[in-house]
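User: Second chain of the day. Same drill as before.
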Amino acid sequence: MEANQEILFAKILEKVRKQAKEQGNCIERQQVEDAFQELSLSQEQLALVFDYLEKHKIGIDTAIDAEEFLSEEEINYLEIYKKELELLETFSEGEKEAVTLSAMAGEADAQQKLISIYLPQVVEISKLYSGQGVYLEDLIGEGNVALAVGVTMLGCLENANEAEGMLAKMIMDAMEECIEEAGAESDKDKKVLKKVNKVAKQAEKLSEELRRKVTVEELAAETGMSPDSIKEAMRLSGYTIEDIERMEG
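Assistant: Same format as last time:
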């Protein structure tokens, strides 16, 4: 693919992934093919797209049971949390619309009621993001915060029937951001570990040659690493690299 096509491909893929989330983590094969139609993908390229979607737990034509990807601990948490939600006040569709209209008008009591109405939906949405590196309870927590903020922002809507879509999008965006942040933190942790391991291995090698602990300066001269980089690795390891002398002060 050319550069411009690659950018368009990435945008379409993200759009398809979000569409699947909005449809309960499921998308029709025809919807995917239609979305990529302008790129004229080969059958092999389309197959790779479907593989990508399935690896991200998105059902093709048939919905996937999101609870299959929950750990035993998450399942137990979910059972307890659902029982707590069952104690909340229930509302008919007519009452829900009336509460929504009042919330749109800025009534604080109605906004609190609307939070209660949509808390179960936060749980259902959280399942769509399970198995992506963030514990279910944290996803629900992020979703609940987004919901609490969202009910105060409904005044911009013209119709009450737009509220559910707006709140669902805010909840989903919050969970996706949570997953992205967790992924970035994981990448950062991996880089830190790689740096510490590199310094530790080089220190061990030089220590074996000298038959004693090495200084930061000796290790820097031998490896070409900067003293500051070595000191940073020592600090990140909690000063547990045994083959380097730790300077006092």
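The chain has a mean pLDDT of 86.

User: Great, on to the next one.
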